[in-house]
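Bumping my old thread because nobody answered last time. Still need a sequence for this structure:
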């Protein structure tokens, strides 16, 4: 997966309670009369989130759901629109798990886009971190059993 530094919106972000990504992407001011902007027109874009550490809390029951959203304000707090739900990291999820989603290219995104981490079941331990961003390719390599025989 090739990453653009400007499109990595959470880079090892510590998450203990529900929060948005450290950074949001500003698609630029909308011209008069426009309600949104298309992302990735002509080429698919993907969103990803990586669980950098074991998902842990004192009760071993917390989960983290990750969504990709847009809003007219940088804090994604006015009337954020969820465009992709990447999924939920289960309680005690092991480090290294990756969730992917495909961005709808026909959607009008509001000016600011970013990720929301919604923690349920209690707060996470202080060392739980995530990396999340937008990319043009995903790490889709799969290891298959070898069919080659050597004599």
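Sorry it took so long. Here it is:
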């Amino acid at each position: 997966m090739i990453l653009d530094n400007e499109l990595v919106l959470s880079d090892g972000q510590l998450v203990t309670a529900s929060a948005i990504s450290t950074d949001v992407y500003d698609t630029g001011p909308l011209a008069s009369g426009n309600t949104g902007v298309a992302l990735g027109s002509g080429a698919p874009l993907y969103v990803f989130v990586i669980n950098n550490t074991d998902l842990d809390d004192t009760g071993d029951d917390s989960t983290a759901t990750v969504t990709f959203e847009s809003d007219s304000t940088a804090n994604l707090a006015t009337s954020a629109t969820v465009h992709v739900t990447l999924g939920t990291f289960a309680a005690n999820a092991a480090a290294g798990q990756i969730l992917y989603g495909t961005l709808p290219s026909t959607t009008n995104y509001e000016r600011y886009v970013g990720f929301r981490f919604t923690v349920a079941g209690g707060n996470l331990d202080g060392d739980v971190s995530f990396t999340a961003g937008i990319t043009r390719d995903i790490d889709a390599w799969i290891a298959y059993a070898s069919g080659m025989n050597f004599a």
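The radius of gyration is 17 Å. Let me know if any region looks off to you.
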